Amino acid sequence: MMPDLDASLTLCTYCPKLCRHTCPVSNAEARETVIPGAKMATMRLARLGKLESDVESTASLYACTGCGACSEVCLHGVTPGRHLFTGRADAERTGHGHPALAGLPDRVRAHAEASARAAREVVPPHRFQPSAEVALLPGCDDPEATATTLTVCDRIGAEYVGVADVSLGCGGYPLLAGGFPDAFRLHAEALARQLQGYSRVVVPCPACVWAMRVEYPAHGVPLRPEVLHTSEFLAQFIERLPVAAAARPAAAAFYHDPCYLGRQLGIYDAPRRLLERAFPGGVREFSRTRGESECSGGGGVLPLTMPATADAITARRLEEVHEAGATEVITACATCKRRLTRDGVTARDLVDVLAEATRPA
Amino acid sequence: MRATRGAELAPALRSLTAPDRVSTTPPDRLAYARDLWPRGMLGLKTGQAPAHPPDVVVWPTSTAEVQAIVRLAVENRVPIVPFGAGSGVCGGTLPLAGGMVVDLKRMRRLVNLDRASLTATFEAGILGEHLEHELARRGYTLGHFPSSIMCSTLGGWLAARSAGQCSTRYGKIEDMVRSVELVTGTGEVIDTTGSHGLGADFDQLLIGSEGTLGIFTRAVVAIRPAPEARILRGFSMPRVAAGCEAIRRVMQRGLRPSVVRLYDEIDTLMARSSAAKEEKAAAESEDPEERAVAGWLGLLGSEQGKRMRDGLRRRLVGAALGASVGRMRVLNRAADALLPRLSGGCLLIVGCEGDRPLAEAEARATFREIERAGGKDLGPGPGERWLRHRYDVSFKLSKMFQAGAFADTMEVAVSWDRLLDLYRAVREALAPLCFVMAHFSHAYADGCSIYFSFAAAAGDDQALAEERYDAIWRTALAASTSVGATISHHHGVGLSKAAYMPAEHGESMAIFRALKRVLDPHGILNPGKMGL
To answer: b/e for B83-107, b at 16 or more Cβ within 10 A?
Structure first.
């Protein structure tokens, strides 16, 4: 059974640093202050009233991408990433939130609304349906992906898939990660109302899939439709995908497991099965893959709070790509795609690959 | 928090390194004020601030930066504590005099892999798990698997003369090193590459110095191809003495199994208990081998026997967590009296690895010797289970503290002729004070190490807990040294055993002090440690 918050904080405080090697922030910073145990110990001190009341003292609570790598190796079942989001909420409530997150609720709302509008610019109006069996939720990090996913759906005979007629193109994950649970709940309620007319919603962002599946109910927000990640939905049609001819060098591209898709939702096989069928030559695995996969640095609003550290995490993830002389990474998350496109490497989303594979000759 | 002289060096340190690689913030200073010395962890319960935070923390990225930092410290007579990952259990990285902590973890590269010579050059700050991963993905292994592999660095291993779980085959870290690079307390760089084959072995003078003679910055280590075969086996030995005799025979015959671990009756009882939770299915298995393991685990046999074993285990753990000191002696004595009859023997885990034909031949010979000493073959199950869970025991530490107790371990070694005396002396001495169990590992042709684990109630009174903790250690080390054992096998000396160094080393301590005067004439390196 998963320990509650108080037990988790105590277990981590006394733990002999057994998960530190997995923490992307800790590995990038090489700083004892930001190993998972120390971050949890800081949160415990704050709750005991033994922490200095200042922003500096609570800064380490923000040194986490929520990637869940530490939980993967924890025999106690502690989830520091999730608990630290609560620690951030505590800090925010006492006026010691991270300065870079000031006004985040307004920014997230504006961004989510802009994303929903952006989707309308790339998707024909008739595909926006107020109710449908299956609807795509426009993603906030990559509006083009909505149109691309729709194209793939059309080509594999799932023309009935529409786009959710919503004003918010985001599940609200950044609000939760930033320590704004009330704003998150309000966002969730608003989006849940707009999604009433759908049976299933296909979401491109793994972090928002996680938020909608796990955190909406935990925050008392019922959600009518079943929430699926794009890879889960498309894997149901795998037989309709063309079988790739191995026309290019074998294993030229690496596959990167998004943390929220893999560790948090347990979805490892769906994207691999799709790629195995549709991507010529197949993909190459990182030496740390699946549950051991290293973070791309994009989660937990780290690019906002610790941008240099987020960049160092991304650079670390790409070391193996450079070492192999490869230039391409495929992933299933718009945030990971954006993070991993740098230093001569191009990251592509799974749906981009599938669109290419299904393109009419 | 009080600002001190070391903090005044921050601007200079920033210009020597980088602005974001120097910190004087209270959170960073507090994070480097503790390591994993259990005595220091007693204060965590109440959120007590640690007594000795450093003034400044700096993260160098090159040997040249380490040199520059040391020279700055010398000029200003500011102490330096080299820091790996802070997994030491003897207080070896506590900044007793404040000053600077030099964290090496940003020096973590695999610098060179020499496939022809089977050596690898690593910077000292690489975490053990990362080092082994870098080698493993290229088809090699260092063969060094300390239980701290997730939270310790190569530099820390060198500083404290670390031993891994496969030391019987691969040796301790000092046996794996081919050369080291170290920055002395004057800022000079010593690189021992090419100095071997004649004269003194300078590597061995420096390894184990725990940051008092210099700061390790890189090392060349011997590597091996990842083993083609790994053959693991469990044996049930009738008593501890028979198990020790089996190991002695194996080692003195020249065999070098990778894993040799003999658990005493209490440790065996604990191992059986946790294994049983996982492997109940084995009891219902049709497979005779799995049934044999289940039988040994106590899943088969009389209900009464199972109930008694389980009851005893619960009482022992309960005693550790809450018994008065007076009751502890009674419980330990009861365990001594009952366990030989209840435990079904002592578990011995043995493994051989390497090229398949060689590993198989070595395993055959090893297993034969163990059977000659009275060992009953339990098949591969217990060994494979050990391999799957070999790092799990460390998770129990936080559970103990959470339950209001404390736990610690003492690893000491002695020659074979006094090994059982050591075992009995420490157990008897500690019986009134704490719950104690032991396993035997890190075996050699001439002796063996015993790893004592002890636990006691801490209560809410920190001063009382510290008093009890200190009494346990005083008693344990007195008993250990009374039979001529070492004060440590691989955890190092640090602060907790510093007072025992003169007695341990005798005249050699003068040589150590002389080395200190030469390599660290201003005494800035890790002051207050190792009895210097």
So the answer is: bbbbbbbbbbbbbebbbbbbbbbbb
